[in-house]
Amino acid sequence: ERFTVCSKRDGVILWIDNASIVEAARLAGAPKDKGAGILLHKKIGDKVSEGESLVTIFAERGSKLERAISIFEEFPAIGVGDRMEMLIHEIRERPVAKKTFILER
Per the confidence metrics, is the pTM higher than 0.85? Predict the structure, then answer.
């Protein structure tokens, strides 16, 4: 059985919570059940549209699939939002040297 988690809004993948992904995979039955696991369709920085698939959860039994889905509903594992630019530093004005200093030996 499978369930696909879709994006609820347009934007960019900002973060992925690995701990939530691992917990959902374990609740789905991985690594014990060979047919259980999680397939990530997107990575950080990818653009997504509303309704586009982000993750597919696979499980061999419906009860395990329901538990894995509940983790995704309780703790969002993937953050989608507007793109943020990183600001390293900002120079407001050019520094002007008041007086040069020469050291003679």
Answer: no
**What number is the average pLDDT over the span 25-41?**
94
Which pLDDT value is given to residue 97? 63
Say if 23 falls within a structural domain: yes
Question: Which range marks the domain in which residue 28 is found?
Answer: 2-81
Count the Cβ atoms, other than its own, within 10 Å of residue 6: 13
The mean predicted confidence, pLDDT, of the chain is: 88
- 4-31: average pLDDT: 94
Strand order in the sheet with 47-48: 47-48, 11-16, 78-81
Q: How far apart are CA 38 and CA 5, in angstroms?
A: 11
Rounded Cα distance between 72 and 35, Å, is 19
Q: What is the DSSP string of 7-54?
A: -SSSEEEEEE-HHHHHHHHHHHTTTTSTT-EEEE---TT-EE-TT-EE
* 86 assigned to some structural domain: no
CA distance 55 to 44: 13
